[in-house]
Amino acid sequence: MEYKAWFQCISNCEGKYELNEVIYNCPKCGDLLEVRHDLNKLKKKSAWQWMKLFDDRYRRGEWPYGSGVWGKKEMVCPGLENQNIVSMYEGSSNLFWAERLGKEIGLEDLWVKQCGNSHTGSFKDLGMTVLVSMVKQMISEGKKITAVACASTGDTSAALAAYCAAAGIQSIVFLPKNKVSNAQLIQPIANGAMTLSLDTDFDGCMKIVQEICRKNNIYLANSMNSLRVEGQKTVSIELVQQFDWEVPDWIIIPGGNLGNVSALGKGFLLMRDLWMIKKLPRIVCAQAEMANPLYQSYLKGFEEFKPIHAKKTLASAIQIGNPVSFKKAVKVLKEFNGIVEQASEQELADAAAKGDWTGLFNCPHTGVALAVLFKLLKKKVIAPHERVIVISTAHGLKFTEFKLKYHESRLKNITPHYANLPIEVPAKYDAVRDTLFRELEKKDKRRKKSLQR
């Protein structure tokens, strides 16, 4: 069966555009486009048939369907030829049962979706495999595309550079100078991207990359390009699949440019329309207090939105004051009875470290989501018996500087309540024994104090 998808305006202006067209905004009103699928075609299969097909493909070896994204190809980018797919078997990331952390905070059923356990260490791989694959197909069809470019706070640039390198396509990344970690900076450099360091913030980089792409044969890879969202929405399908097609009660996800929030909702709505699920979860978007334009709009019922100048935050990947996917995210949050909450720098740093103490290894953005979870539990918005999923967007190894500075008390204006440094001890049995028991007693007291915090 020939499944179909196309670009269409999020405000429902007339006009459909092929997925291999170089277009990002509606020509009539200027709003963002979204990918829409022919639901009548998809409904030719029953919900049970779709679930069985996805289960049969999951983590298997048949190219390219073992990928967490391309195992759902018919609902992602059906017209793409398999030989043009650029995949690193992204997705299929594990669900971490955060049993100990859940018990400590009074939650019975807490899970962390480890989207950072991917090739480049973030959930951005899910969208980039779709975008770069489509660019490869466009080039094979004779379209002149000089390079693919993005503005980034780190993770998008890493994903773009890696997938373009695998495809043999030149990538260009625009990074805000001195605002990404060294681990994030080295990724596009290592993968051969043309890396431009601009003396501005992400929003400044975003403005320039849009102009560069508009005036030249360079393809834009930021999340305003709806192809990215199609890959990222598979997180929703995969989550439900991993719970034997049961829908959780809550999903908490950190938000910066807000493409991830809209993608999360899009996946659930598609499953609902195909009768694969019977209910929708509630979605919480977690923002850093220093970069919180969506939160400020939420406080006013989303009746107005004012871009802000995002202040420096430890959660650097979401340090964005003018998110391009604002309208898409608001639409999703309204439909999912969503909540927007914020976390201070102290809260996010402590939350990341507290989670680490229970076996996680969190990036600061996951720290934002965890801090918001703690708040909503204390406010009794989330009930102790409800199933909660926290989306971990990136691997903690990308942020070792943040984590080391936390434990060494070198983060400005942060008191590290969960600091844990190496202890220098003479190489003598008595000294080691005495130190061990002294420190074990201290740790036990700190653990009890932590449970009370």
UniProtKB/TrEMBL annotation:
The lineage of its organism: Bacteria, Candidatus Schekmaniibacteriota. Gene3D superfamilies: 3.40.50.1100. One of its GO terms (biological process) is threonine biosynthetic process. Keywords: Pyridoxal phosphate. CDD domains: Thr-synth_1. Belongs to the threonine synthase family. The modification N6-(pyridoxal phosphate)lysine is found at residue 124. GO terms for molecular function: threonine synthase activity. It holds the Pfam family PALP. This is Threonine synthase. Its cofactor is pyridoxal 5'-phosphate. It comes from the Bacteria. Its EC number is 4.2.3.1. NCBIfam families: thrC. Residues 87-393 form the Tryptophan synthase beta chain-like PALP domain. It is an enzyme of class 4 (lyase).
